[in-house]
Design goal:
The protein is mainly alpha-helical and about 130 residues long. It is built from four helices and no strands.
Length: about 130
């Protein structure tokens, strides 16, 4: 009975991969040549794109421990949150300052800053009313 179940799951997986490859091929061949004058692809190229996107965008590593706290959160995020909770308010401020120094203005904003539009000063020689 268990062998039949394993075979059934494997067949469903194979059919799903084939279906998604066909969907990628059809969508690609419908959109890309018309929008971007790109090439038409074959089924096997679509399967390759599907595998490549899996590797590039989701990888093959563990995504967290099954069940429990943060099962769907990345490992590094849970570790950072645990570390953050253990920090004193002074250590948090020191970390924020160091992070802001490293990332500059293009990095993530850990605290709200006024936008450049709100800080505009009148040009020299003009009067504001």
């Amino acid at each position: 009975m268990r062998k039949f179940w394993i075979l059934k799951v494997m067949m469903i997986g194979i059919v799903a991969v084939l279906f998604f490859s066909l969907a990628v091929m059809l969508l690609w061949n419908w959109l890309i040549p018309a929008l971007f004058s790109g090439p038409v692809i074959t089924f096997w190229q679509a399967l390759g794109l599907l595998i490549l996107s899996k590797i590039l965008f989701s990888g093959f590593g563990r995504k967290g421990h099954p069940g429990g706290y943060g099962a769907r959160q990345p490992f590094w995020r849970r570790k950072f949150e645990e570390k953050w909770e253990k920090m004193s308010p002074e250590e948090r401020e020191k970390f924020k300052a160091r992070f802001k120094h490293r990332c500059g203005s293009w990095g993530w904003k850990l605290e709200e800053e006024p936008s450049p539009l709100q800080e505009q000063k009148p040009a020299a020689g003009t009067q504001s009313s």
